[in-house]
Specification:
177 residues; alpha+beta
Length: 177
Amino acid sequence: MRSVLSTLLVAVLLGSSVAGQEPEPPHAADPADVASIDAIIGALYEVISGPAGPRDWDRFQSLFRDGGRLIPTGGPQGGEMTVVMWTAEEYAERAGGWFAENAFYEVEAARAVEQYGHIAHVFSTYESRRDPAAEPFVRGINSIQLFNDGTRWWIVSVFWADERGAGPIPARYLPQE
C-alpha cells in the first residue's frame, strides 16, 4: 500500500497535484500525431523535414512532454565528445533560423523499439539529406524516450549521435535487406 509520503513524492516528481491535475500543455497536439509510437515518431521526422523555410514549431512542441529535452552529441572528428541539452522551445529558437535558410530532410531508415507498459525507448536510425532524392550527408541514431499517460504518447527526450568513422552504426540498427 502506498503511503501518503510516497503519494506526495510521486506528485512532486511528476509535477502534478495530489489530485492528479496536469497543467495544460502550451501547444495542443493533433490526436493523430500522438495516438501511437509510429504516429509520434512519424510526426517528429515530418515536422523537422522540408525545403528551406519555417517549420511548424507549435506542432513540434506539442509532441514533447513539459520539460522534454533534445540532446545532441558531437565534437570535432577525433576530438572530445560533448552533449548539449535543450528544451523543445530552445531547440525551435536555435534551429528555426537555420531551417529557414536550409532545406533539410530527415527520414527514419530503421527502428528498434522496447516498450514496458507506459514507457518506450526507440532507437531510430536516421538519414539526413539536403534534397529528398540526394544521398544522405549524415546518418546516426536518435534515442527517443516516450511516455504514454493513458491518453496519448509524449516525447520525453531525443538523444542523438551522428555516425562517425570510428563508430559505424551497428548492423542491427540498419535497414534489413
